[in-house]
């Protein structure tokens, strides 16, 4: 099996169209169709049902793609091992980030990484956690950087940072009775049900975390609205629409927002772990291990600066 065969079949399956797939592969549609037709003749099966729009994989196509993906993973692992042996530090890395995390992390780590590996091309994918995990499992990305709430079978975790979760509100919005300690900016979490809460939609890791915090105190949230973005939640809270729980990186990116205050959720910081996620069956070469080291060291260094403002 050629890797090109897999990439062509995979792209048609992803696009649901030979024309769209050809455009993304930078070849002509007739050339792609002829290639897939020849592959089907060699295999003796139809890989695609062309009678429907968009075109869909047949059962044989599904099986082919599943086995081909495993083959691609083995080939990529071999390439990484050969790269280590030859000390040829070139190639590419495909990194996945949630939509806002890429804004925070990539400008920090990319300049540092490129000083050591100027010959390595970085490609990025961003989207929801579910989308990124699907890309990771199917070989679309090498690493996903995101907070982890539950471990997943077959997924390795490498801790790159801890982040505090904080409560954001407009200046003067919270009363003294809402706080355990105004001077140290410690919020009384048991008062959360009294306040209109702006929170992320269900399915986001942060929303799961907030729901767990609520369950732990037996408190029912007074949800004012559901948001798709921590930055949006933070800016709405700064305008007095309600309060929001966000990771400290969001406050760091919006620290100059007027009329915004943040508070700790408890006397001791409430944190979550941000991990680099990868498939456990993937060989991690020197390049991949160095990337993880650089990400961890860079985020730890930036966190020390961030703590100065907290």
From TrEMBL:
Residues in HTH lysR-type domain copies: 1-58
Similarity comment: family membership: Belongs to the LysR transcriptional regulatory family.
GO cellular component: cytosol
Record protein name field: LysR family transcriptional regulator
Organism: Candidatus Enterocloster faecavium
Pfam annotation, one family: LysR_substrate
Keywords: DNA-binding, Transcription, Transcription regulation
GO molecular function, one term: DNA-binding transcription factor activity
UniProt xrefs under InterPro entries: HTH-type_LysR_regulators, LysR_HTH_N, LysR_subst-bd, WH-like_DNA-bd_sf, WH_DNA-bd_sf
């Amino acid at each position: 099996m050629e890797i090109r065969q897999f990439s062509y079949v995979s792209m048609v399956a992803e696009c649901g169209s030979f024309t769209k797939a050809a455009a993304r592969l930078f070849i002509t549609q007739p050339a792609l169709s002829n290639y897939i037709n020849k592959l089907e003749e060699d295999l003796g099966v139809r890989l695609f049902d062309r009678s429907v729009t968009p075109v869909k994989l047949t059962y044989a196509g599904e099986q082919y793609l599943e086995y081909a993906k495993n083959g691609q993973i083995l080939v990529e692992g071999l390439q990484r091992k050969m790269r280590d042996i030859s000390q040829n530090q070139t190639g590419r890395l495909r990194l996945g980030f949630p939509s806002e995390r890429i804004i925070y992390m990539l400008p920090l780590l990319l300049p540092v990484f490129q000083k050591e590996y100027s010959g390595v091309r970085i490609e990025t994918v961003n989207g929801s956690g579910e989308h990124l995990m699907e890309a990771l499992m199917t070989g679309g990305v090498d690493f996903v950087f995101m907070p982890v709430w539950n471990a997943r079978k077959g997924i390795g975790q490498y801790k790159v940072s801890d982040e505090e979760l904080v409560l954001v509100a407009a200046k003067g919005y919270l009363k003294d009775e809402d706080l355990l300690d105004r001077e140290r900016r410690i919020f009384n979490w048991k008062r959360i049900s009294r306040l209109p809460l702006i929170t992320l939609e269900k399915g986001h890791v942060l929303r799961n975390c907030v729901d767990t915090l609520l369950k732990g105190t037996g408190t029912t949230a007074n949800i004012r609205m559901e948001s798709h973005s921590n930055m949006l939640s933070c800016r709405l809270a700064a305008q007095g629409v309600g309060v929001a729980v966000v990771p400290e990186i969001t406050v760091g990116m919006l620290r100059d927002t007027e009329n915004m205050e943040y508070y700790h959720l408890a006397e001791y910081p409430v944190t979550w772990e941000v991990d680099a996620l990868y498939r456990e069956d993937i060989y991690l070469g020197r390049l991949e291990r160095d990337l993880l080291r650089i990400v961890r060291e860079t985020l730890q260094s930036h966190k020390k600066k961030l703590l100065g403002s907290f």
